[in-house]
Structures are given as C-alpha cells and as structure tokens.
Write the structure tokens for this entry.
Amino acid sequence: MQKLQLAELYRVTEFAELGVGLRTLVKKFSPNKTSDFMGLYVIHDEGNPIYVGISRKVINRIRQHVSGINDNDASLAFKMANHLHGVKGKRKSLMADDHFRTKFEQMKTRIRTMSVRFVQVDNDTELYLLEVFAAMKLDTSKWNTFRTH
C-alpha cells in the first residue's frame, strides 16, 4: 500500500490520446519498461479514490476504461451509467439501448477528467489480495464489488 500511495498521480485523459499507441504509453508512464506489466491501479475523482482495479496489462487496462467500446472494456463507465440509468437488465440489452448508451459515453468522458495511480505487482496471489485490501482500505465499495456471477 505504501508503494501505491507514493506512486505518481496521472490524468486519465493522458491514456486516451488519439493516435498514441500502447508502446508509446508504456514508454511514457514506465520508461524503464519495454512492455505493459501486471499490477494494480486506483482511479481518483477530485482526489478521492473511487475504484481499484487489477490487470495483467495495467496501461492498456486504464486506456480501456476511457476508450473501450463495450461494457467489459469500460466496466467502470458501465457501472456508473447503470447507477445513473437506474434500470435493471442484462448487460447486452442495456448496451443496445440508445438512452443507456448515451449515459455510458458520458461516463467515459467523465472518467477522462479523473486521475489514476498504479503499481507493478508480479505475484498473482499478492495482486488479488492487494486489490481487495486496497478497495477496503480506500473505501471504494460504491464501484468495487466482489460478487461472483
């Protein structure tokens, strides 16, 4: 957790620049790396942590949150849109609904105004445990859920 708290805070919009590829982003955000890496990231809204995520490719995953075209890629935007939309339903049918889709795109735009910090974590078990611990410690329960399907 200490490494995470000391990690640099970046604007999420930097991960969604048009024409900027993944390799360029990896060089920009992790100059000592030659490829994307496994780790944990925390998205902040106005300085407050709101979402903890993990990925085998952290840079790409952050990019997906704001540039993804579906509910799996931009999962935080989907959750936020679903919360605003207030309608229950299957993911596929919600994404096919024009009104919901507009909210989804608005949430991706909103996420671009947020910031993110991340740390590399190479051990699978440590990564999974850190995700749950960080979500609890940072109180991101509004958007982080650990329900099984």
